[in-house]
Amino acid sequence: MTSYETRTTTGGAVVLRPEGRLNMVAAPAMREQLHKLVESGSTKIVIDLSATDFIDSSGLGALISGLKVARQAGGDLRIAAPSTQVESVLSLTNLNRVLRSHPSADSAFDAD
């Protein structure tokens, strides 16, 4: 199973960075990794989409699933640096209202 690179920001948020296509093949692994991060106590999560060049409904579902479990645990999930294609899909589905994008993973939780 695919596992995505993670790191922790100075503010304590865990950053997960999927690369390439976030589609029906890759999305289940990301969903599982997000759930495991929350189960292990990480409730501030940032998805760095700077290396994601394509997302489909399965990828969106994984993001929403991660958002839901993070919020249920008292935290939040935010996205950072989405590509033009990802930004377009978020806009077309109106998910940009729920998943607001931030310029970088390190600044995603700065306003808090």
Automatic annotation (TrEMBL):
One of its GO terms (molecular function) is anti-sigma factor antagonist activity. It comes from the Bacteria. Pfam families: STAS (PF01740). Residues 3-112 form the STAS domain. InterPro entries: Anti-sigma_ant, STAS_dom, STAS_dom_sf. Coiled coil: none annotated. Signal peptide: none annotated. PANTHER family: ANTI-SIGMA FACTOR ANTAGONIST TM_1081-RELATED, ANTI-SIGMA FACTOR ANTAGONIST TM_1081-RELATED-RELATED. Belongs to the anti-sigma-factor antagonist family. This is Anti-sigma factor antagonist. It comes from Williamsia marianensis.
